[in-house]
Amino acid sequence: MAEPAHDIVVVGGGAGGLELVTALGKALGHRDRARITLVDQSLTHLWKPLLHQIAAGTRPAGEDEVNYLIHAKQNGFRFMLGSLAGLDRSKKLIELASMQDDKGEQMVPARSLSYSTLVIAIGSVSNDFGVSGVAEHCYFLDTRKEAERFHRHLLETCIRIDTRASRSMTDAVNVVIVGAGATGVELAAELREGVSNLVEFGLDRIDPHESISITLLEAGERILPQLPRRLSKAVAARLNHLDVKVVTGEQVTEVGSQDIRMASGDRLPADIVVWTAGIKAPDILRELDGLEANHIGQLVVHPSLQATRDDDVFAIGDCADCSLSIGDLTRRVPPRAQAVRQQAEHIVRTIKGKFGNRPPLKFEYNDYGSLVSLTSKSAIGALMGRILGRFTLEGWLARFAYRSLYRSHQLKLHGPIQTALLVSGQTIMRRTRPRLKLH
Q: Under the phi-then-psi rule, with left for phi > 0, alpha for psi from -120 to 50, and beta for the rest, what region is 184?
């Protein structure tokens, strides 16, 4: 049988990238109408909004991972391990860097991969905004490995506190989270729950509120600027109830090994600092064979999601700068999971249209609102619907809606039967294992 003539390459197996290749594999790969390849620098996929729970130890990463090789075999695409190192648009080739294992030995060599259609979906990384000391002293939550590294350090810190011969208020460990967007807020709440659970598992010399001080630091006037002001205030009140100190209107100018210096001149004690203050695109996109990039490295795309300087290159998600015109207004598509998932669906329709010689479609973004998790039992947010308009959710109902976002992602990847089995299995496992990861 002849090889498919059209090579579709997707770089990045995050929420959007994996949903995209799964849909394309089922529609085109299984039928040999195109060869679909996913490239990622990891062997497994993990939904990024779960990272704050992994960092707090309230959710083990293994139960939610998707193995790319197995998933590719089941869904009509192929997987290639690698990271984007360059692009040759004239030859329609991407360059993949060599990769090393934990011992520093080469695992896969540098390679080239040809494409007919290229989709770049490599997401974002934390933006330190050039602040001194951030790279040296801060933890980030960009990957599973970083989240697990933070969790290990927090757990070791708690064990040291529990085994001290004496304890006083001055022994408190100061955890500071810089950036009060959704990730920072969710991590702060989840940490307080995680530390409280430690006492139940034997570390009873720890006082959940006195031994670990948690501060959420925000440069803007309020936390969660994407939510209505009323909800922002409600979340701040909820964090205060959890004994999380919220500091707004303070910009960080330097991070040291023991404290943070702010523009006001004040210093804030900080033994552990997590940086969630903003995002930027990976640096590789700034010099990608002449493609247009904005000030934070995102590829600038047309409303069709095609790169402004190459119609055969698409970009989606956090690594794409997409502005849409609505009447006299222009708004930028926000870096949210719902946005990249809608973009993935759009590109599936566009690529299918290519085989029918139809022109690219204009992407239309529908904002369904935002939800923020506040521990395992609560959430808060504002949702938008065509019939009810904008409405708010709080408590267990908001928590149910929040969990449904992840279930929707699982449905896209696995279908209803396998997702139902996964959910049932996870429910059973949670009733038999501790609520906190202790290693």
A: alpha
- pLDDT band, residue 137 (cuts 50/70/90): very high
Strands (E), 98-211: 99-100, 106-108, 111-114, 117-120, 125-126, 138-139, 173-178
Q: List strands edge to edge, sheet with 173-178.
A: 138-139, 272-275, 173-178, 212-218, 244-248
CB 22 within 8 A of CB 78: no
Amino acid symbol at 99: M
**Rounded to 5, what percent of the chain is helix, strand, coil?**
35, 30, 35
Averaged pLDDT for residues 232-249: 94
Give Dmax (Cα) for the chain. 75
Segment 195-227, tens digit of pLDDT:
887 777 767 777 777 888 999 999 999 999 888
Which secondary-structure segment (H or E) carries 405?
Answer: helix 395-432
Each residue's pLDDT tens digit, 102-124: 888 999 999 999 999 999 999 99
Q: Is the four-CA dihedral 373, 434, 432, 69 of positive or negative sign? A: positive
Cα angle: 227, vertex 232, 234; to 5 degrees: 130
> Look-up: residue for tokens 């630091």?
217
At 172, is the pLDDT very low, low, confident or very high (cuts 50, 70, 90)? confident
Q: Lowest-confidence range among 14-18, 65-69, 156-160, 358-362? A: 156-160
3-state SS class at 170: helix
Whether the Cβ atoms of residue 177 and residue 276 lie closer than 8 Å to each other: yes
Q: Which DSSP category does 389 fall into? A: E
Q: Is the pTM of this model over 0.70?
A: yes
**Per-residue b or e along 322-348, where b marks 16 or more CB atoms closer than 10 Å to that residue's CB:** beeeeeeeeeebebbbbbbbbbbbbbb
Rounded CA gap, 84 and 305, in Å? 19
What pLDDT sits at residue 169? 45
In contact, 216 and 180? CB cutoff 8 Å: yes
- Beta-strand runs (E) in 152-237: 173-178, 212-218
DSSP type of residue 293: B
Q: CA 408, CA 307: separation in Å to the nearest integer?
A: 28
How far, in Å, CA of 44 to CA of 14, rounded? 10
How many angstroms separate the CA atoms of 338 and 332, rounded? 14
What the block records as the tokens of 337 is: 């999971």
Mean pLDDT of 256-273: 95
